[in-house]
Design a protein that fits this description.
InterPro entries: SAM-dependent_MTases_sf (IPR029063). This protein is α/β, with parallel strands linked by helices. It has helices at 4-9, 66-75, 77-82, 90-107, 124-131, 143-151, 182-191, 227-236, 267-273, 280-285, 290-304, and strands at 34-40, 46-52, 58-60, 114-118, 135-139, 156-157, 167-173, 193-202, 223-224, 239-241, 251-256. It has a single domain (4-304), classed as Rossmann fold (3-Layer(aba) Sandwich), CATH 3.40.50.150. Strands 6-5-4-7-8-11-10 form a seven-stranded mixed sheet, with helices on both faces. Helix 4 crosses helix 5. It starts with a helix and ends with a helix.
Length: 307
């Protein structure tokens, strides 16, 4: 469990996060030139976020090291980012069960399909897939939520076993934005996929939005995607969008295939132009944060009492 001191420090504005990081190249295109995006995150803490000038991938800079991220996600993430303890709250369960049902319907796999959920959290999709007759396995490094999922009868690994698979489908819902090297992980997953298998990827859409840039960022999300960069990531791992499945911007199902997807050198500027670049001080002084905060609180209350 995180110490109260560390948890409290995560909410002190205008202070940096407790990490050193490393100035890495872009994990997709290898470029080092960047455009600045924001010097703060949604808590008004100091966090530098940039856009790769070569391909448009958004990333934290400097990037947390492997050890720093592993420690954060193992011990601090749930309390720091989601304000929850060792057990998933009712609002979380209500949302993840609804999302799991949508994902099962989208995938439409036959009974007996072997499915891996990478970043399986508290296991709602594992449970929904099992009810559909699929053979489910999960990968979840977070100790608290993986323990909860195992308590519901799910098979959950702390990391992908070397002998895992082959799988008919692999899913990762709002996981790849948390990964230090999403390309390396995706290639590892593709290696565990059957030749005719599919990969479902869903990440937050960092395309044009009215919210201030800093309000869409947090230490937990070390990468940010738009449809073009998600497709570029997939292509580098030998995947192409599967036309059999409907797509919703940064939620897409991929199959094996070769695609000529070159980085778009103009994408970074277009992405930055789509962000609301108002300053934290102006946003706070204008009370622009009040209505969204009330909406989030209302949603939390509603979902906390949802059956």
């Amino acid at each position: 469990m995180p110490s109260l001191a560390r948890l409290a420090a995560g909410f002190i504005p205008l202070t940096p996060y407790a990490y050193q990081g490393r100035a890495d190249a872009c994990c997709i295109c290898g470029g080092r030139e960047t455009l600045p995006l924001s010097a703060h995150d949604r808590r008004l803490k100091r966090l530098t976020t940039v856009i790769c000038a070569g391909c448009g991938l958004i990333r934290t800079d400097p990037m947390p090291t492997e050890a720093e991220l592993a420690d954060y996600y193992r011990h601090h993430y749930r309390a720091d980012y989601q304000l929850v303890g060792r057990s998933p709250p009712r609002r979380h369960l209500a949302r993840t069960r609804a999302e799991a049902a949508r994902r099962v319907a989208l995938m439409g796999l036959p009974a007996g399909a072997h499915v891996l959920d990478y970043g399986s959290g508290s296991g709602e999709f594992l449970e929904a897939g099992a009810r559909a007759g699929w053979r489910m396995e999960g990968v979840e490094p977070g100790e608290a939520y993986s323990t909860h999922a195992r308590g519901q009868g799910a098979v959950v690994h702390p990391r992908l076993p070397p002998e895992a698979g082959p799988f008919d489908a692999i899913t990762a819902h709002h996981v790849f934005e948390h990964l230090r090297d999403p390309l390396a992980v995706l290639r590892e997953l593709v290696a565990a996929l059957k030749p005719e298998g599919v990969v479902y990827l869903s990440v937050p859409d960092m395309g044009p939005n009215r919210r201030p840039a800093f309000d869409r960022l947090h230490f937990a999300h070390v990468h940010g995607f738009v449809p073009e960069t998600l497709d570029l990531l997939a292509a580098q791992a030998g995947l192409v969008p599967d036309p059999r499945f409907p797509r919703e911007r940064t939620t897409s199902v991929y199959a094996r295939g070769e695609a000529v997807v070159a980085p778009d050198p103009g994408l970074a500027a277009r992405i930055r132009a789509g962000f609301n670049m108002t300053t934290p001080l102006r946003h706070v002084a204008s009370f622009g944060w009040l209505a969204p905060t009330l909406r989030r609180l209302s949603r939390d209350v509603r979902d906390s009492f949802r059956p």
